[in-house]
Amino acid sequence: MNGDAGAKRSLLRSERFPAILLLAAAIAGLVVANTPVGTSVIAFAHQHLGFLPFDLSLTHWVQDGLLAIFFFGVSVELQFELTRGELRSIRRAVQPAIAAAGGVVVPVVLYLALSGGGAAASGWPIPTATDVAFALGVLAVFGRGLPSSVRVFLLALAILDDIVGIVLIAVLYATDLQFGMLALAFVAVVLFAILSRVDTRHGVLLGIGLGVLALATWAFMLLSGVHPTIAGVLLGLAMSQDRALITRHAVEPWINGVVLPLFAFTAALVPFPSGSGGLPPVFWAVLVALPVGKLVGIAGAAWIAQRVLGGERMPFGDLVAAGALGGIGFTVSLLLANLAFASDAGLRDAATLGVLAGSLVALVLSAALVFWRARTYRLAGRETS
User: Where does the UniProt annotation place the signal sequence (predicted)?
Assistant: First the structure.
């Protein structure tokens, strides 16, 4: 039994299976929403379950609650990369940073050009995200033979994209700020940081204390008007690195096996539009901005950076493959779609469909490009051996 459980946890920590599970959950949500039971399932997902002052729907418990655990994992990885990993020096970080900037600016410009303006324009942050789990999953499946520099570049790029997404969520989607609650949230984070650095043999008591402070941080952040997933970000950055890495390793199977599939399923509960009106411009804007904007922005900015700044160069084909992988927005893009159009269900549903369609296009395109590049390297290796 322990061996089976260990094998399942190992599978959920891999780069391939979680991406497949995430895609399957999103497809399941989309299919269910467009069956005869779809209306009932969507209504159930929007049922409120909670107690004052936490009166949240089931969907928001997933989006605002469980997803904070995902952002905790993201910020732990960010902390590691900034201190020990690929972003620990300016020299290492500058090219991925410029590529990430291109991968934000070009999709935003494309989105604004295609969205038709008006209320739809507020969805410009949606195509700025890269789903690192999905991107690394595609790389793991189709990239056998690629040099490690491609994975390193993609990981650094995706981490920087996550920073952009986190900042956008914190700045753009704060509502009715309550500074007293925000101050209490920061006090809880400071206490969490201090307690995580205590050297004690009482591991259970320490875990309980950290858990209580984490829940308090989340609650205060929710009540402050700042999106509560930011609590996960702050806790991941504040925790002592060794304990943070251990904690992330422990929760990773739950993130990949429960949190993200549940979020993907509930976010994809979107009925296809009926009638002759067709899909609104926001759908097409996201559909184009993710796969095209990311590829052009990342590959173009990285190519320019390499020639202006010098240093280690990646072949342009590798940059194009990395740019295509960056177009798989998925998790954070779905969250941004929900936040950007929280008060307009029609635009929210269209943007969600755009994220799913655009990410699928980017997935297929990146898989083909990664396979082509990997095959090129494998053939070159055989010729030189």
Answer: none
Query: What is d(CA 311, CA 295) in angstroms, rounded to the nearest whole number?
Result: 22
pLDDT at 86: 72
Residue type, 372: W
Range of the domain at 234: 16-173+227-384
| Amino acid identity for residue 327 in this structure | G
- For residue range 291-326, list pLDDT tens digits in order: 999 999 999 999 999 888 876 788 999 999 999 999
Q: What is the pLDDT of residue 299?
A: 95
For residue 235, the domain's CATH number is 1.20.1530.10
User: Residue 333 pLDDT > 70, yes or no?
Assistant: yes
Structure tokens at 380: 């070159």
In a domain, 11, yes or no: no
Residue 210 lies in a domain: no
Read off the pTM.
0.84
Residues 366-377, mean pLDDT to the nearest whole number: 93
Please indicate, yes or no, if residue 287 is contained in any of the structural domains.
yes
Q: What are the phi and psi torsion angles at 279 (to 5°)?
A: -85, 140
**51 φ, ψ (degrees, to nearest 5):** -140, 150
Q: What percent of the chain shows pLDDT beyond 90?
A: 51
Q: Do the Cβ atoms of 327 and 358 come closer than 8 Å?
A: yes
Phi/psi of residue 200, nearest 5 degrees: -145, 150
Return the sign of the alpha-carbon dihedral for residues 36, 39, 41, 42. positive
Cα separation, 188 vs 191, in Å, equals 5
Is residue 51 domain-resident?
yes
Give the other-Cβ count within 10 Å of 275's Cβ: 5
> Into how many domains does the chain fold?
1
